[in-house]
C-alpha cells in the first residue's frame, strides 16, 4: 500500500518555477500513468508560461487566490476551483492573494521536466 504524507515528501522546483511536492507517481509508488503533486506559488509570484506536449493537467486550488491564464483566456481562481489544462495549451498561474497559493496538480501521464516547454523569458 502506497500512502504518502505531504510533510514527508521533499519539495523540488519544476521547470516553470513552481515548488511542488510529488505525492504519488512512478518515482515513489506503484502508480504508472499519472501523478499527483501539491504545488505552491509564493505571494506576488507566478509560474512561467508553459505547455506540455503530452501531459494533460488538472489544477485544484486548496489555499489562496490566483489568476489563471490558458491560451489567452484569463479568470480568477480560489479554493474549490478545478481547472482543466489540455495538452499543448499554454498556461500561467499568478498568486494574487496575501498567502501562499496552494493547489493539487494531477498529471496524466506523469509530470516530466522533458515535457515542459517554457514560452516566455
Jot down its keywords.
mainly beta, Jelly Rolls, 0% helix, globular
Structural write-up:
The protein is mainly beta and 121 residues long. It has a single domain, classed as Jelly Rolls (Sandwich), CATH 2.60.120.10. Helix content is 0%, strand content 47%. It has strands at residues 11-13, 19-24, 35-41, 50-52, 56-63, 66-70, 73-77, 82-85, 91-95, 101-108, 116-118. The strands form three sheets. The chain has a six-stranded antiparallel sheet, with no helix packed on it. Strands 7-6-9 form a three-stranded antiparallel sheet, with no helix packed on it. A two-stranded antiparallel sheet has the order 4-11. Strand 6 (66-70) and strand 7 (73-77) form a beta hairpin. The chain is globular and about 40 Å long.
What's this model, at a glance?
With 121 residues, the protein is an all-beta fold.
Number of strand segments:
11
Distance between the termini: 42 Å
Rg from Cα: 14 Å
Order of helices and strands: EEEEEEEEEEE
User: Uncertain segments of ≥5 residues (pLDDT<50)?
Assistant: none
**Assigned CATH superfamily:** Jelly Rolls
Count, helices: 0
Percent helix, as a range, is: under 10%
For the residues shown, what is the average pLDDT?
Answer: 96
Structural class: mainly beta
Overall shape: it is: globular
Count of folded domains: 1
CATH class: Mainly Beta
The amount of beta strand, in percent, is over 45%
Largest sheet: 6 strands, antiparallel
Strand order of the largest sheet: 1-2-3-10-5-8
The CATH topology is given as Jelly Rolls
Amino acid at each position: 500500500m502506497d500512502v504518502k504524507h505531504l510533510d514527508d515528501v521533499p519539495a523540488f522546483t519544476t521547470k516553470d518555477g513552481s515548488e511542488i511536492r510529488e505525492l504519488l507517481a512512478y518515482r515513489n509508488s506503484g502508480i504508472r500513468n499519472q501523478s499527483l503533486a501539491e504545488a505552491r506559488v509564493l505571494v506576488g509570484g507566478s509560474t512561467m508560461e508553459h505547455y506540455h506536449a503530452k501531459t494533460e493537467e488538472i489544477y485544484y486550488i486548496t489555499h489562496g487566490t490566483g489568476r489563471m491564464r490558458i491560451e489567452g483566456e484569463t479568470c480568477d481562481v480560489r479554493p474549490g476551483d478545478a481547472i482543466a489544462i489540455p495538452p499543448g495549451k499554454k498556461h500561467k498561474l499568478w498568486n494574487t492573494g496575501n498567502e501562499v497559493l496552494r493547489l493539487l496538480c494531477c498529471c496524466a501521464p506523469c509530470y516530466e521536466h522533458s515535457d515542459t516547454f517554457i514560452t516566455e523569458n
